[in-house]
Amino acid sequence: MSQDGTSQSHHSKLLQVERRGRIAILTLNDPKTRNALGDELVTALVIELHSLNQDPSVSCMILTGAGEGFSSGGNVKDMKEGKSLFKGSPADMRNAYAFGIQQIPRAMYDLEVPAIAAVNGAAVGAGCDLSMMCDMRIASETASFAESFLRVGLISGDGGAWFLSRVVGLSRASEMAYTGDPVPAQKALDWGMVSEVVPQAKLMDTAIALAERVVRQPPQALRLMKRLIREAQVGSLANNLELAAVMQATVQHTADHREAVAALLEKRAPKFEGK
């Protein structure tokens, strides 16, 4: 780790990892392709997401892109040249998706800590979908979102059909998917796709400020709260209530719960230890 607190991912130069206290900042770092999700970057990102789950000192993740774009999604050069996901038989391609880029939506869905997308530019195709896999999105004024698969004769092979409609609703998700038209930052704000639009120069400061508000919460309860909200998107009310009861019984036995109550009654700031 360098003096400024940044650390290079040991998995790939295409993914930079920085720690600021309980916040992990992941930067897609292949600006020459506008952070296209090639095999190496996919692998590095999935490994890093799994490692965050196993690190109790992390309570929030920020995902952003280096350079002018957030992520251009699939590599169009690979499409033309028949490389990576675009080579072999249909069975080969199916396996390439299942054990390649589809590992990202699985890992993002299973990520235990809240995730913030700091969208610094165009989020296109699988890049758009990746931003939708986060729990919260903050956009720079130069950001845009395009579910543009049909424009290259493809469908969303990475989970976009599942995530996008849960963020913006069925009608708007359908409009984005069937037209491929980009949604600029201000329209994304109007649609509720992003929480805030800020000047490019203030994007990371704004995302970090939000993350700092998140990581003030008791770490164990925060992770369980995220899981409860995730499961609420796919399960029945009865199952969610049962899950909530079990989780509540767990967190009520933590020292952090007792500290939170004591701090509230004593009108002071709590000191959580993740215990």
Question: What would you note in describing this structure?
Answer:
This protein is an alpha/beta fold. The chain folds into 2 domains: 6-215, 2-enoyl-CoA Hydratase, Chain A, domain 1, CATH 3.90.226; 219-266, Lyase 2-enoyl-coa Hydratase, Chain  A, domain 2, CATH 1.10.12. Helix content is 45%, strand content 15%. The chain has 12 helices and 10 strands. Strand 1 and strand 2 (15-20) form a beta hairpin. It is globular, with a radius of gyration of 19 Å. The protein starts with 5 loop residues before the first strand and ends in a 9-residue tail after the last helix.
Structural class: alpha/beta
**Sheet with most strands:** 7 strands, mixed
Strand content: 15-25%
Please write the string of helix (H) and strand (E) elements. EEEHEHHHEEHEEHHEHEHHHH
Query: Mean pLDDT, as a whole number?
Result: 93
How many discrete domains? 2
Task: Look at the structure and name the CATH superfamily of the largest domain.
Answer: 2-enoyl-CoA Hydratase, Chain A, domain 1
CATH topology of the largest domain: 2-enoyl-CoA Hydratase, Chain A, domain 1
Kindly report how far apart the N and C termini lie.
Answer: 27 Å
Strand line-up in the sheet with most strands: 1-2-3-4-5-7-10
Which ranges are low-confidence, i.e. pLDDT below 50, for 5 or more consecutive residues?
1-6
* Strands, total number: 10
The DSSP helix count reads: 12
Computed Rg: 19 Å
Q: What portion of residues is helical?
A: 40-55%
**Shape call:** globular
CATH class bucket of the largest domain: Alpha Beta
